[in-house]
């Protein structure tokens, strides 16, 4: 052991130990996955991405076979006698914006069906576990009359409408400010619930997890 001169009241100590050669390959994990790091002798181990389940969307419904909502009493999407999922009104004139704002009379006339991409969020809309639709297969097969609107599309539609209404509110705030609040709330709900819309009849072969009638 060698004692080095005092530097500012501290004592530096150097301990010599016998050198020993170790022949070992060191595997270095590069968290960025950008190739071999300096000093590594092998390709880095890149942790796998967490599993994703983008194949399904979920719908919470206390009674998916009923045509009427148990809470609001209005007509709603339901599973028909053939096992297909149909909207409250397949020929309804309710717009996407009206459906998302969610007024009772609009939902009863809607040709859109709401889903969530997150199972736990869908379950908040029904006491029972939600059933699911294989949206990956639905997109692949593209059955006639079915249109899918992703969360990002819905938010973009609402944002466009919000800009229009804000311009109108400059001239008539009393009339249009309430509409602004409704659209803003709809955007929050869509984002919070990871909502998507499907328009058209969804054949039974894409539906899984329905309770017994």
Describe what you observe in this structure.
The protein contains six helices and ten strands, in the order E-E-E-E-E-H-H-E-H-E-H-E-H-H-E-E. The protein has 213 residues and is an alpha+beta fold. The chain has one domain (56-208). A hairpin with a 5-residue loop joins strand 4 and strand 5. The radius of gyration is 29 Å and the shape is globular.
Secondary-structure blueprint of this entry?
Blueprint: E1 2-3, E2 13-14, E3 56-59, E4 78-79, E5 85-86, H1 96-101, H2 104-107, E6 112-116, H3 119-123, E7 131-134, H4 135-141, E8 147-149, H5 151-171, H6 173-193, E9 195-199, E10 207-208
Antiparallel strand pairs: 1-2, 3-7, 4-5, 6-9, 7-10, 8-9
Helix pairs in contact: 5-6
Task: Please state the CA-atom Rg, rounded to the nearest Å.
Answer: 29 Å
Q: Output the structural class.
A: alpha+beta
User: Topology as H/E string?
Assistant: EEEEEHHEHEHEHHEE
Strand numbers in spatial order across the main sheet: 3-7-10
Q: Tell me about the largest β-sheet.
A: 3 strands, antiparallel
What percentage of amino acids are in beta strands? Answer: 5-15%
* Poorly predicted ranges: 1-37, 46-51
Query: What is the number of helical segments per DSSP (H or I, 4+ residues)?
Result: 6
Number of strands: 10
Distance between the termini: 84 Å
> Based on CA inertia axes, which overall geometry fits?
globular
Average pLDDT works out at 83
How many distinct domains?
1
Proportion of helical residues:
25-40%
Features:
30% helix, three-stranded antiparallel β-sheet, 213 residues, disordered N terminus, 10 strands, globular, alpha+beta
């Amino acid at each position: 052991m060698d004692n080095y001169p005092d530097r500012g009241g501290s004592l530096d100590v150097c301990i010599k130990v016998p050198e020993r050669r170790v022949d070992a390959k060191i595997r270095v994990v590069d968290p960025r996955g950008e190739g071999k790091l300096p000093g590594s002798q092998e390709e880095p181990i890149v942790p796998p991405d967490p599993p994703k389940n983008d194949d399904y969307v979920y719908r919470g419904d206390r009674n998916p076979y009923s045509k009427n909502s148990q809470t609001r009493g209005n007509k709603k999407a339901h599973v028909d006698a053939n096992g297909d999922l149909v909207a409250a009104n397949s020929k309804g004139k309710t717009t996407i914006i009206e459906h998302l704002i969610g007024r009772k009379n609009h939902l009863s006339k809607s040709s859109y069906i709401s889903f969530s991409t997150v199972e736990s969020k869908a379950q908040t809309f029904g006491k029972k576990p939600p059933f699911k639709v294989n949206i990956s297969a639905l997109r692949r097969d593209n059955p006639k009359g079915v249109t899918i609107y992703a969360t990002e599309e819905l938010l973009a539609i609402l944002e466009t409408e919000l800009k229009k209404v804000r311009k109108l509110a400059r001239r008539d705030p009393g009339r249009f400010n309430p509409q602004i609040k409704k659209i803003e709330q709809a955007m929050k709900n869509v984002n919070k619930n990871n909502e998507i819309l499907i328009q058209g009849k969804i054949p039974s072969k894409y539906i899984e997890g329905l309770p017994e009638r």
